[in-house]
User: Which sequence fits this backbone?
């Protein structure tokens, strides 16, 4: 009797370059095989002899600490056998002792790291680098993160650079950000977060659970997550939030130390969460909302208190309006919700309010925000208020030694403006306000508002000013009224502008324009104030006030200048470590009619640019020189200048100390670059100093073979 030698595996080839190209994972800087779920990949198994019909061969995929078949954490796959948990393998071809196998994971498989062993009879072969990373698959129609449009997949999954929009509604600007989801250790950091989340294997299948868990883990509150938030203006024992230019350094440092990285503010949280979601394969984008309400009481109202000089007071309100707030949208089918709420879902990792006991927020369907279905999970009420609350202004006056509050205006169309994200395939801002809100005053907006109110407003609260729900008409139909800006008898209107560029070191020259538009003689008491404030709405310094009596007749206007000398603000500007905005508030009261109107506008300082000089194209592994040039066109010396530069696939994050740059002086720094990756790459540069926190720029280069 001829005894066959027992079948043994002598080697396995993961065919990395072919598989990763097909799975759009060739960008990951990692030794292991990275593939996406629901899509076949191939492995070549080498044996000690030919494979025969009677031989038993199985691939075993285990996930987690102690994989077991009955727990679903150990999958044992045999060729041509019925599938196991939606996974299957088949023999593509046999060639002597070589056997080419195709493995297709389930499109609903748990995402994470799988250990591959090959079992032949009683022998088990454990390959080196046998850990396979399995990600979500936006290219697979059966995956809940499926996205049909290739240009969108390129932007929202594969683009490792982008912009985050900041500033104020009056002056929006783009801050370049390197997501760097393919850089070394970033995928491992995301896998570490998945393990840390303690999600069950079943929960790991669903991007809704995964994105909610990641929104909690990107902030350090509750769980020793990635980033510690700090809005104090003092960052001695860490990195100022203004000094980051991307997520890579943050995630690498976190993965190395397993301790929260100091410090983040909203755009840093959103930038890192965007990296994590793209890295795991969920389409994701950073979303900036200007004049975003932080409504702690869920009553859709944010109260702003002013003193008699028209200056905003910090202390009285827990509610606030942030000049901008950045969160993320992730793309998925919501299998846990009724029909109609698939697509973009808002998630937010900035620690603002607890949700189910943790600092986490979302996923909340963007369509639910638009339709007013704020009861749907998760956190619909909070997100709805961020973009829809009213702003009510109160003046606090001392009457007989007691504080009395007088209402001086309500803004109903002011919150949640210019909702912005980077356009697909283009370096420009795309306005997505329409995805979050119906047009102000439209029939759909009224219906959405009524629906939201039925879930949010405690009964007996007055509806939002200027808003009447229904009016009986003669025919018995109910006809909703359009909410309008409260129209005054005088047609009073205020506008706030800057009349000269707002350069640090120069006088700040602004103007308040008072307009009336109805017949009559009007006497208007105008109070105006100028303050410096953080983007969270917290006032840092009072710079000056004006009080004027303006006389207008009929349709006319008058421009009242408001001018602040450099001495009044330069000291504050160089003592805080954040970027501050200029806040101008105006209160107008008409003597004859007692009409009151309040308006505020935030503006940012304007800075000279950094220019980047380098070739338009370069060859792989061939050095080129990149120069950064900055001319200080301001009237002040910029102290302690630092230039931060990073180019993914070109060079790691580098900091140049530039000392002080006097007015009129030119700074020039050069760096020798060696490109290690093909395609369109970007170099990002940022200059920070005591006086200015954020001059940034970026430039693209194409790397060819």
Assistant:
């Amino acid at each position: 009797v001829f005894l066959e030698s027992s079948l043994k595996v002598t080697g396995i080839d993961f065919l990395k370059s072919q598989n990763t190209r097909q799975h759009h994972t060739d960008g990951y800087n990692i030794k292991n095989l990275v593939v996406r779920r629901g899509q076949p990949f191939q492995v070549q198994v080498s044996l000690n002899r030919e494979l025969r019909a009677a031989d038993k061969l199985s691939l075993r995929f285990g996930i987690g600490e102690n994989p077991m078949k009955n727990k679903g954490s150990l999958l044992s796959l045999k060729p041509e056998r019925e599938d196991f948990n939606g996974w299957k393998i088949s023999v593509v071809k046999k060639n002597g002792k070589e056997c080419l196998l195709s493995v297709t994971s389930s499109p609903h498989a748990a995402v994470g790291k799988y250990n591959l062993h090959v079992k032949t009879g009683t022998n088990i072969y454990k390959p080196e680098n046998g850990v396979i990373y399995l990600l979500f698959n936006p290219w697979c129609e059966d995956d809940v993160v499926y996205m049909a449009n290739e240009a969108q997949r390129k932007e929202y999954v594969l683009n490792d650079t982008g912009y985050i929009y900041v500033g104020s509604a009056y002056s929006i600007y783009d801050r370049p950000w390197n997501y760097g989801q393919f850089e070394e250790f970033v995928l491992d950091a995301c896998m570490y977060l998945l393990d840390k989340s303690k999600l069950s294997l079943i929960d790991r299948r669903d991007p809704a659970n995964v994105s909610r868990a990641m929104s909690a883990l990107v902030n350090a509150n509750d769980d020793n997550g990635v980033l510690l938030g700090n809005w104090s203006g003092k960052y001695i024992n860490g990195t100022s939030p203004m000094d980051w230019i991307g997520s890579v350094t943050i995630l690498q440092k976190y993965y190395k130390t397993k301790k929260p990285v100091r410090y983040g503010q909203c755009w840093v949280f959103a930038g890192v969460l965007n990296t994590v979601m793209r890295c795991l394969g969920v389409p994701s984008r950073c979303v900036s909302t200007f004049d975003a309400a932080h409504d702690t009481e869920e009553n859709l109202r944010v109260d702003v208190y002013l003193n008699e000089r028209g200056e905003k007071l910090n202390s009285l309100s827990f509610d606030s309006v942030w000049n901008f707030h950045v969160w993320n949208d992730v793309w998925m089918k919501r299998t846990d919700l009724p029909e109609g709420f698939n697509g973009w879902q808002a998630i937010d990792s900035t620690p603002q309010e607890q949700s189910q006991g943790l600092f986490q927020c979302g996923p909340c369907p963007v369509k639910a925000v638009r339709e007013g279905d704020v009861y749907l999970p998760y956190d619909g009420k909070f997100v709805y208020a961020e973009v829809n609350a009213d702003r009510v202004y109160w003046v606090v006056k001392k009457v007989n030694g007691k504080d009395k509050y007088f209402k001086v205006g309500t803004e109903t169309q002011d919150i949640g403006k210019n909702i912005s994200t980077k356009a697909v395939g283009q370096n420009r801002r795309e306005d997505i306000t329409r995805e979050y809100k119906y047009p102000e005053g439209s029939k759909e907006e009224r219906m959405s508002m009524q629906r939201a109110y039925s879930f949010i407003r405690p009964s007996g609260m007055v509806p939002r000013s200027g808003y009447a729900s229904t009016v009986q008409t003669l025919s018995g139909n109910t006809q909703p009224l359009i909410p309008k800006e409260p129209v005054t008898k005088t047609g009073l209107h205020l506008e706030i502008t800057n009349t000269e560029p707002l350069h640090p070191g120069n006088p700040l020259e602004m103007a308040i324009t008072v307009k009336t538009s109805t017949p009559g003689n009007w006497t208007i008491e105008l109070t105006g104030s100028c303050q410096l404030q953080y983007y969270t709405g917290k006032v840092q310094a009072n710079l000056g006030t004006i009080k004027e009596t303006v006389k207008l007749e009929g349709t006319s206007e008058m421009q009242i200048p408001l001018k602040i000398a450099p001495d009044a603000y330069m000291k504050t500007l160089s003592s805080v470590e954040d970027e501050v905005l200029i806040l101008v508030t105006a209160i107008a009261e008409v003597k004859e009619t007692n009409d009151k109107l309040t308006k505020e506008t935030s503006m940012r300082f304007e800075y000279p640019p950094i220019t980047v000089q380098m070739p338009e194209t370069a060859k792989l592994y061939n050095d080129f020189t990149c120069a950064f040039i900055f001319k200080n066109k301001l009237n002040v010396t910029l102290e302690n200048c630092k230039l931060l530069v990073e180019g993914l696939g070109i060079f790691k994050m580098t900091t140049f100390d530039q000392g002080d740059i006097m007015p009129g002086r030119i700074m020039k720094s050069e760096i020798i670059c060696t490109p290690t990756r093909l395609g369109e790459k970007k170099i990002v540069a940022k200059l920070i100093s005591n006086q200015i926190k954020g001059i940034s720029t970026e430039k693209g280069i194409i790397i060819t073979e």
Observations:
- Residues 346 and 599 are 30 Å apart (CA to CA).
